[in-house]
Amino acid sequence: MNIWKKTFTKIYPGVSKEIVWQILTDINHWPKWHGDLDDCKLEGTFAVGNYFMLKPKGMRPVKIVLTDIQEGCSFTDCTTFFGARMYDTHAMEITTEGLRITNTLMVTGPLKWLWVKLVAQHVADTIEEETEALISLARKQS
User: Fold this and answer.
1) 3-state SS assignment for residue 1
2) Residue 129 pLDDT more than 70?
3) Which CATH architecture has domain 4-141?
4) Which of 36, 55, 126, 130 is most buried by its number of CB atoms within 10 A?
């Protein structure tokens, strides 16, 4: 299967994995550090199968389903578009240099080219900026 994939990874020294995980999984508060969101609302608990409604600024809300959670380490969510799916994996790993944050975005399906152009490329282009904002918030909460 043909997959479009973009990955951002960076090591942040002196950052608490627990605090970063707490901020990442507190989906209702993503607009505090996610500059391009109007709203984000998790339906139910942070568990596989549950979903959140994410409303980017100037756009309609989208439903995003939690598809995999490795407690304290990573989670993947999936947005279903007509003819494509976009998966976003947020992962953390403690290294000797600091906390490695990795974000991997993948789009699959026959209309992936369309959704990469309309949505995924923009998301990929903002991952570094959003990750820096996440880490900045985590450092303030330490």
Assistant:
1) coil
2) yes
3) 2-Layer Sandwich (3.30)
4) 130
Residue 100 structure tokens: 């490695």
Tell me how many degrees the CA angle 49-53-57 measures, rounded to the nearest 5: 150
Contacts of 50 (CB under 8 A, 6+ apart): 42, 43, 44, 65, 66
User: Which sequence spans correspond to the domains of the chain?
Assistant: 4-141
Reply yes or no on whether the pLDDT at 1 is more than 70.
no
Q: Which amino acid is at 121?
A: Q
Residue 140 neighbours by CB distance under 10 Å: 8
Amino acid at 48: V
Cβ proximity of 101 and 13 under 8 Å: no
CB atoms within 10 A of CB 112: 21
CA distance 32 to 110: 35
